[in-house]
Amino acid sequence: MTTTVATSVQDLWFLSRGSGLILLALFSLVVVLGVATRTGSAPAHWPRFAVAELHRTLSLFAVALLGLHVATAILDPFVSIGWAATVLPFVSPYRTLAIGLGTLAIDLGAAVLLTSLVRKRLGYRAWRAVHWLAYLAWPVAFIHSIRAGNDLGVWWVALLEWGSAAAVATAVLARLLSTVRKGPAEPGPTSEASLDIQAALMRQGANS
């Protein structure tokens, strides 16, 4: 009986850690796809809308996987985290810094997700400002993943962790280079419409 309980508890830990590692890889892919959508650097045979839709779908899937990751961590009887730590950073008595960073990453990601769902009502500029939090959420989640586990010595775990870091660093560098080449950010849909109206009025004035 004791062996069965111990095995079940160990399974919870493996499930929590495994889902966390998959989440990091998935979150990294979401960031890379987001940059590809923004810069138009996706493969030529991929329509831009397809990349954007994949970005959105993987983001929603990550939310479901996050629920599993959090629940299994909270239910593990060998650690004391507490449900409050799922929302409030740095209140967990167990590995306060590591768990707190994970909670902070969740809060930042939730802000990005929720504003994306109400993007049309929120407005492009406000949505874009909040969306930049994704670039902050990733390094916070990465440090959480590094500090929450003690298995970085396992080769495939280290490969996943540092491979994710390399992919995101490359994507962010590409984003910065794209911004430098293009100069100021392109106007959003609302701004483009305003410019079209202004141009029409100027043409009308010139003809009158």
Describe the structure.
The longest helix is centred in the N-terminal third of the chain and has 38 residues, at 2-39. The chain has 208 residues and is an all-alpha fold. Helices cover 78% and strands 0% of the residues. 22% of the residues are buried. The chain has helices spanning 2-39, 48-75, 96-117, 119-122, 124-131, 133-148, 155-182, 189-207. The protein has eight helices and no strands.
What class do helices, strands and sheet pairing give?
Answer: mainly alpha
Mean pLDDT: 79
As residue ranges, the low-confidence spans are 1-6, 184-208
Principal-axis shape equals: globular
Instruction: Please count the helical segments.
Output: 8
H-E string = HHHHHHHH
Strand content: under 5%
Give Rg in angstroms.
21 Å
End-to-end CA span: 92 Å
How many strand segments? 0
Helix content: over 70%
* Oligomerization category of the chains in this entry: single chain
Sheet having the most strands: none
Keywords:
single chain; 8 helices; disordered N terminus; disordered C terminus; globular; 0% strand; 78% helix; 208 residues; mainly alpha
Summarize the model shown:
The protein is mainly α and 208 residues long. Helix content is 78%, strand content 0%.
